[in-house]
Structure formats: C-alpha cells, structure tokens
Design brief:
Helices cover about 65% and strands about 0% of the residues. The protein is an all-alpha fold.
Length: about 150
C-alpha cells in the first residue's frame, strides 16, 4: 500500500484500501475521513459506499451509514462479489440480519469464498453464532493448507 501510495498518492482505490487498513487497526475516525474525501471527489464510486457505511456504523452514525446503501450500490453489489460482501458487512454492523445474510449469500454465489476472512472479520461479530451465518460459512470449502516456503 505504501509503495502504491508513493506512486499515485491520490488514487481513489489506494486511498480506499488504506482506509480499510486503518479501520481494521482500530482507527475508524481516520478511515471515515479518508473515505469521505474520496467519495466527495469521486461520487460515482458506488462500490466503495458500503465500506464507508461500515466505518460510519462503527462510529455510531447509523442513519448516515444506511444512507450510503443506495439502489446503485445494490446494483453494483449484485454483480461484484467484493461489493456484495462489503454490503453484507454494512448490514451486519447495522444488525440487519436478513439483509446481511442475503448479501453474504450473494457474495458467495458470485465467487467470494474467503472463509478464513469471513470467520474473523470483526464486522460479523454479532452473527458468529447465528445459524444462517454458520450455514453459509460452513458450506464453503476450507482453504488448502499453507505450505511454508
């Protein structure tokens, strides 16, 4: 990320993924500030709005988070496995079980089978023991064992 940012300091996706790193390093305020600026400069990037929504939700701004989950976001999520997962995660943080599981299933249908990440992503903490969540995640193949090189 640092090398990419050094080459293209203003690239919206590099900034987006840097914000995600900050969020997962328990810095949601900084993460939200970065993504707010990215979306101000690139409002057409609907695919990253669910990421921003997770940051807002984590900060307690539910109304603002839900406002990011537009019809355009859902259209994008319906065809992109990452966006579908991010949308599912945003709904999970908002406690919207049915929508969260619907979009998690869609992410899997579209090819996102990152079981190890699904099992540790903090956004899904409320649903770890939910039978619907467990059914979806347990249906995924286990990753191959890592070979030390």
């Amino acid at each position: 990320m640092d090398q990419g940012a050094a080459i293209e300091t203003d690239h919206p996706l590099i900034r987006t993924f840097r914000a995600r790193l900050l969020y997962y390093r328990a810095e949601p305020v900084k993460a939200a500030e970065i993504l707010e600026k990215v979306l101000e400069q690139h409002p057409q990037l609907d695919g990253i709005r669910p990421i921003y929504a997770t940051f807002l939700s984590a900060l307690g701004f539910s109304d603002e988070a839900r406002a990011q989950l537009t019809d355009e976001v859902k259209e994008t999520a319906n065809t992109d496995h990452d966006v579908a997962y991010w949308l599912a995660s945003a709904y999970a943080l908002e406690g919207e079980r049915d929508e969260a599981l619907k979009w998690l299933r869609r992410a899997v249908e579209l090819g996102n089978e990152n079981k190890p990440w699904f099992m540790r992503d903090k956004n899904w903490g409320k649903f770890r023991n939910d039978p619907g969540y467990q059914t979806i995640v347990s249906s995924l193949p286990d990753p191959p064992p890592h070979r030390g090189e």
